[in-house]
Structure formats: structure tokens, C-alpha cells
Design goal:
single chain, alpha+beta, L,D-transpeptidase catalytic domain-like, eight-stranded mixed β-sheet, 37% helix
Amino acid sequence: MNKIYYVLQILFCLAYLFVHNTSAEDFRSKQNKYIRVRNAYREKETSVKQSLLQAGLPYPPKEIFIRIFKTEMILEVWIRCQNSDTFQIFKDYKICASSGEIGPKRKQGDEQVPEGFYFVDGFNPNSNFHLSLRINYPNESDRITGVKGSLGGNICIHGNCVTIGCIPITDDCIKELYLLAVEARTSGQKRIPVHIFPARFKDGLQFLQNINRNKRLIDFWMNLKTGYDYFEKHKALPKIKVKKDGTYLFNL
């Protein structure tokens, strides 16, 4: 009996290792088991390849970076090539619905779109909103500064132009973005960064200060602006940590 148990334990461990150590190539294969993903590839892969070629960018992309501006309702996709330290802009997608207002998400039910520094932590090929990429809200900063025990979650970039706190682009656009994210993941990018800002900071904070004079909120935006400015200058991502008070600390 002990021998049988021992063998079963070994088989279980081997199965676990197989599932959790499959090659990166398997990620695309697994995603393509779903009809919406297959349709996205059939409809969009050729045009995405052509657009990347015209921009002087490779397919498949080595890494992608997503940057979102709430006021302008724009989602940017940036791509980093194999032998480059910097990102290059690839495409803008129009955000087609919004909820809440400028300012971070601090609790469940406030209808706010988060602001801050996140990454994609889930792919949903069977989303109620066609296809969706979930971000890791609440992040470490949110857990410190938000309402404890009532932060909410399941914030996604998705299709189907409806939202309560998410970032919707059209079904047609999410097919392209989802495909790019699958390819980047397949190429070995474990974390796809997603930076969400209240607006472009090209005019400093003047525009935002004219809308909201709350000092705590202005300080929060000033903190975000440090990360924004670094990327604007270097076209590279800063290393980001979170301090005990929830503010972001950048290794510039």
C-alpha cells in the first residue's frame, strides 16, 4: 500500500511539473483552443504583421507595454524589439466607454478606473466582453491606500463598449490587442506592464489642478508623473517599488 501511495505521489508531482513548466510556445497553443482566439488570429494576424512591418517592428513582438490615458480615452501599445533597450509606439486604440472620473480606484463599487502601475495577470478567451486582459488591481499600493476589505477587483481591458471600472475598446480592437498579448507571452514576456494615468502630463499638472485642487490627489498624481516622465524621456520602463505609505518609488 505504501509503495502504491509513493508511486502515486511521484506521478502527481511529475504531472504538476509538466503542467507548470510547459514551454512558452504552449501558451499560444492553449489559447488557440478557444474559438474567439482562433477567430482573432484568422481575422487579424495578417494585418497586424503588415502594420508592424510598416512601423519597422518585428512579429511576433518580444515585449509589449500598454499605456492608458483616461481623459483622452486612449490606450497606447508600445513594442520593444529583441536587441533594443527602448520601446517604440505601435498603435493607439480608442477607449469606447468610461465610468467614474479622474482619480484612482479606492474601493469596490466606486465605478472608478484604477490609476497607477499594473501588469496583465490574466487572459480570458471566454469573456462576457468578447476577450479580456485582466490587470493586477488591487496592486500593493492600492492595498495600502484603498479601503481595507472592500477594494474590489477583476478590472480588465476588454471588448464590448460597456464598463463599470474597466477599460473597454471595441471587439475589433481587442482582437488585435489580445493577439499581441498572446504573442508577447508566448515569446517569454511573463508580465505585460499596464500604466494608467488620469491624463497626459505634457502640460505638467496644470490641467488636472484646474479640475481638482485636492492636495492629496495632486500629490498622488505628482508621484505618477515621475514614472510617466521617465518613460517619456528614455522610452524605457523604470523599476518600480511601493513604499510603506503606498507611494511609488522609482529606480531612475
